[in-house]
Amino acid sequence: MEIGVLKLSRSYLCVLMIIVTLPDPSKEAKVIDARDKTLSRGTDRGTAYARFKPHKFSHLNITSIGSDFVLKGSECGLACVNIPSCFSFNLGLFHDVIGKVICELLPSDIYNNSEKFVFSQSHHHYSIASPCISWPCQNKRTCAVQYAENSYLCVCVEGFEGKRCELDIDECAEGLHTCDKNAYCNNTAGSYMCACKPAYHGDGENCMLQVI
Predict the structure, then answer these.
(1) CB 49 within 8 A of CB 34
(2) Of 126, 122, 121, 120, which Cα lies nearest the Cα of 78?
């Protein structure tokens, strides 16, 4: 038997699914506090839960796992928790003739698809709460959520490093440039520029001595 419990607050939508089975007297009962983590899946352990952060009037425009019409948001949240590949959902604002709204289950989140996270007058978006909610990664880099550990990794692009991609690599000092030996190397944010030295001309990567 499955029991769905919905908890609403100003900041989060908490969904808990409890699988009720006969107790095993050989094992000690364990109490799981959903406040310790934002996501736990695995019906073999008897529970599955998630804390969803609402993003009002927003829509994550990616291909859905599936969609259906539901009477309330808790049904959409329970469906997402019950599908291992679901990490967020879009919930419609407008009801049909029998009072249902569209529920779109999504295989990813806003942190890995920030360019597809858009304003919407017809939806609210819900993503599983995580440390990425504060957008810790700098220089517009991707925040990869580690849901099982309630942690994150910043995926840096070439030219940046550090836990939050906050450090600009000096390609000139590190010898990571392609400037000609007769060119100056000037470090820039995330990259570098080459400029030929006086008496030489070229694009900075190939500098030729000027002949007068």
Answers:
(1) yes
(2) 126
* pTM, two decimal places: 0.66
> How many angstroms separate the CA atoms of 112 and 126, rounded?
14
Cβ neighbours of 204 (radius 10 Å): 21
Whole-angstrom CA distances from 174 to 67, 94, 130 are 51, 56, 35
In the numeric block, the tokens 């709204």 are attached to 101
- The pLDDT tens digits of the residues spanning 47-93 come to 778 888 899 999 999 999 999 999 988 899 989 988 989 999 999 99
| Residue spans of beta strands (DSSP E) within 61-209 | 66-70, 88-92, 101-106, 117-119, 123-128, 142-146, 151-155, 160-161, 167-168, 183-188, 191-196, 200-202, 207-209
